[in-house]
Records
---
Amino acid sequence: MKTTCPYCGVGCGVEVNADAQGWRVCGDAHHPANAGRLCVKGAALGETLTPAGRLLWPQVAGRRVSWQTALDSVAERLQAIIQRHGPDAVAFYASGQLLTEDYYVANKLMKGFLGSGNIDTNSRLCMASAVTGYKRALGADAVPCCYEDFTHAGVIVLVGSNAAWTHPVAYQRLVQAKQQNPALRVVVIDPRRSASCDLADLHLPLSPGSDGALFNGLLRWLAQGGYGDSAMLPQLAQVRETLAAAADWTPERVARACQLPQSEVERFYGLFAEHQRVLTLWCMGINQSSSGSDKCNAILNAHLFSGKIGQPGSGPFSLTGQPNAMGGREAGGLANQLAAQMDFTPENIDRLQRFWHSDRVATQPGLKAVDLFQAIGRGEVKAVWIMGTNPAVSLPDGNAVAQALQRCELVIVSEVMRATDTSAFADILLPAQAWGEKNGTVTNSERRISRQRAFVPPQGEARPDWWILAQVAQRLGYAAAFSWQHPAEIFREHAALSGFENNGRRAFDISGLAQLSNDEWDRLQPVQWPVNADFPQGCARLFSTRRFYHPDGKARLLPVAPAGPRVAASRRWPLMMNTGRIRDQWHTMTRTGLVPRLLQHYSEPFIALHPDDALRHGIWPDALVRIQSRHGWMIARASLTEDQTPGTLFVPMHWNQQYCAEGNVDRLVAPWRCPHSGQPESKQTPVRIQPW
Ligand code: SF4
């Protein structure tokens, strides 16, 4: 059986076969994202297909009940809260683990029929700044590039990304591209010397959060050196203002701001300027920042101004963290957008009302993830339905999140696992189908839609997320609009909506898939959107014609005033803490924690710090240490390494209560967020450290 890996946004195709030992998982040699490769997490997927720890049946108030009772209870209690307090008193919090069909139904129910914008997703923690950056620059949340571009690039810039660990198969493709083309230059921009630096011709260990200054300086360098693309310039708006905003960012000033040698800054600028085919890959080091959207636009400015977009080997390429972060964006999973990537405009609201035959479509964006849980904490949102994610571990300011869930009037959790940090707060627990059991589509970082296929029977009474949502919608009185019997029917509706009154104005258009039969949907081959009359076979690269999605067809440069972390390190909080993934674990370990061999890389949380900092704070190698921020504390073992820049820490984000009660780092992370994207600043939290 061919399906798709449920972990990172590379979106590798996998083949699953049964043998005497159990499930054998290998890479799908024909899938364009990975051509047969898998990383260690993907290769271990077969070992996660176990009943151990699964949530097997619905529960209400801790007691096993029938699906009928559970669904009635969800509908009655949501209805009662809406009647008393209005639709904005309820919220959904979804996940990049959901399939696009699940997302479509969740969004349709909340924004289309309950009448609130209050559905957000853990993709807010991952991609929201990139979405804002793309929309402001290109007029659409449309990633221009594809993995194939690795083989065409002359320079590849990895910024805020340790792809070697977080997107391992994409990194393997980078390694292969460099082997095939030794002239390819790789620049890694990251405060720490990560595993990805093994491939780097140039590593810029800039000070945490100074990326905006670096890319503003790059724009100035391009302008001063005459590297603007004269054919592109007529297609750009706000050029003068943006260049003016960058005018003071001389290499000397950038070097000071980034704490880098000026010669290294200029070397990077020279590589970017001199090569026509430059690909910039970025990830959470850029997005998870209180100025994340502006950092994304600083990157986009440089690419647009120099015309490095829309051509093979060239472009600004954000790597998504999750298997279906992009599918969620397409289906309206973010609180600030409607279905099919439509914005909240009167025209789009009217369009949705007519398409869905509903007069209750939300007219205002809802609460973004951090704001949503703060509103729960204040008692303004009284019911939350959490689907396929573990916010008690993964959201910043974790202690406040736990308190919010504790006081929330109604917490509904749809989950695969029985005992998560979040399900401990649930009034109603609904068993959802897991990878291998559920059936639908996902979209990876390069806009490629692939199928996740079911090949094992569901454990216990687990049901698809879309089915659970549709059953509740029917009980709420919306039977006609939620009457699907098969996920292919939902996909067809989603595809038809993407093309509804589109006429080339919206980037996301898969109307060419709206007529698939159930069998054709089941056999769907990986394809990059758009898929429509212009691109019946999909489209590898966007913007090759240099026409963008703003109404005037132009792209926008955006004046950027570089900002550092919201709160700088100080005498009291002298170290800047960075959180991130390690190679062999996924999110809060509810699945990868089941596989003993994945704990061989790191079996416990750790705090990586420079030996000079260790000496200064009396920390011995491998000693247990306590770190504290304004928001919380944790304990883990010190890992001394010169890969860390002095003054910085790195702590993995994965450990939950089950695997290490004192090792959850998100309790320390501040809830500060980008004002444009709402994405929290998970990469820069001032902390202090002491032996434990
Ligand atoms: Fe899965 Fe990502 Fe590894 Fe591919 S690189 S096998 S998608 S975790």
---
Amino acid sequence: LGAPLFAGLAGDVEVSFEFFPPKTEKMEATLWDTLTTLAPLGPKFVSVTYGAGGSTRERTHATVARIASETAIPAAAHLTCVDASRDEIDSIAQSYWDAGVRHIVALRGDPPRMGEKFVAHPRGYANAAELVKGLKQVAPFEISVAAYPETHPDADCADSDIDNLKRKLDAGADQAITQFFFSPEAFFRFRDAYTRAGITAPILPGILPVSNVATTRKIAGACGTEIPQWMNDLFEGLDDHPTTRQLVAATVAAEMCRRLYSGGVRHFHFYTLNRAELSFAICHLLGLRAPKVAAAPVLQENAA
Ligand code: FAD
């Protein structure tokens, strides 16, 4: 029958976690609970998204700055080119640098209304590659960019999308994080293609643990990710069973990570949606453990 599915995983993986900026105090409390649960896994970094059209500019900044000042986890801020001039973007970047933030996830962003074509601000950055170049002139940030195993919907073809990824890395980005996907084969085909194109920078697979297929389908359509039929089948009949959906979600995502691990992947980037449970469970199945805290020295009563 072969080795048990999760046997032999040495815990030799690195992880990073993505959050969105909370809107309310309650959501902020949830995010901090999540961070408290995930922090002991020693993420290489955590990142905070930037709402469409810059709609979360202040909240993203406040969240990243708080993580940077109150935790030891390296925090990255997402930043997009949408609806802002180069000067505005450069000044946001400068304020990140001044707040001690050293890592930016540099993105073009999507048009404010879904389905419309992206139009650059007349005095703005036209695409992510230009943004990377601009950010490097503001400060020596570490920069991550986006990559698309199933090709970005705006790309002419898969090869031109890889050329674009290469332009972003050549412009100074250090690594890329992929859009979520549900087929390890799609990731491996993409890896073969970018390796053939001479890309050697780390490309971290973005893992979205799915517990609600209907919601995921809405986002997936816009970003070119395919949701396989077997996934629909798996969640069929579970609409009124949220706990079971979570269990199924963890199983599916952990199995995908295990297959990526077998193919040599050692860094996983989790789209947490600000919840700890699924990402924590998958990391655990991948063999990751929080270091054991050294036992506190016992205070000696009546010590001299
Ligand atoms: P780009 O790399 O600029 O490319 C966009 C498209 O244009 C590609 O198809 C590319 O091939 C094509 N292209 C670019 N330049 C050229 C050129 N010179 N010639 C020909 N074709 C070109 N969105 C948000 O709003 N906020 C976020 O916080 C956010 N975080 C994300 C995090 C990750 C890890 C990922 C994968 C995506 C994220 N997005 C976010 C979504 C992202 O903004 C969209 O996918 C957007 O449509 C493209 O952004 P990009 O940086 O990939 O753009």
